[in-house]
């Protein structure tokens, strides 16, 4: 199995990579994380402060997030959405 290694481009209007294909230990900047989640950098910081997204690793004065942490956060969002859909469907059936 070939391991895919890629960079996230933040100069374009969409993320060029899928997190599932990234090396889980790859380190991402706040701009890259924001681009992947389609939010602004300030929202990333708010998510960390709220405990929703794991805190970054500090490399010197720079903050970096592990791709695995971002993927985990995305999976939590999908699970939360699916649970809400199930509740809504159960209410309609009842």
Q: Any chance you could write out the topology, listing elements then pairs?
A:
Elements: E1 27-28, H1 30-37, H2 41-49, E2 57-59, E3 62-66, H3 67-93
Antiparallel strand pairs: 1-3, 2-3
Helix pairs in contact: 1-2
Structure description:
With 94 residues, this protein is mainly alpha-helical. The chain has one domain: Multidrug-efflux Transporter Regulator, Chain: A, Domain 2 (Orthogonal Bundle). 47% of the residues lie in helices and 11% in strands. It is built from 3 helices and 3 strands; from the N terminus they run E-H-H-E-E-H. The protein has helices at 30-37, 41-49, 67-93, and strands spanning 27-28, 57-59, 62-66. Strands 1-3-2 form a 3-stranded antiparallel sheet. Helix 1 packs across helix 2. The protein is elongated, with a radius of gyration of 16 Å.
Helix content: 40-55%
Gross morphology: elongated
> Order of helices and strands, N to C?
EHHEEH
Ranges where pLDDT stays below 50 over 5 or more residues in a row are 1-14
Q: How many structural domains are formed by the residues?
A: 1
For the largest beta-sheet, the strand count, sense and barrel status come to: 3 strands, antiparallel
CATH topology: Multidrug-efflux Transporter Regulator, Chain: A, Domain 2
Strand content: 5-15%
Distance between the termini: 48 Å
**What structural class results from the helix and strand content?**
mainly alpha
Gyration radius over CA: 16 Å
What would the average pLDDT be, to the nearest integer?
82
In CATH's first tier, which class applies? Mainly Alpha
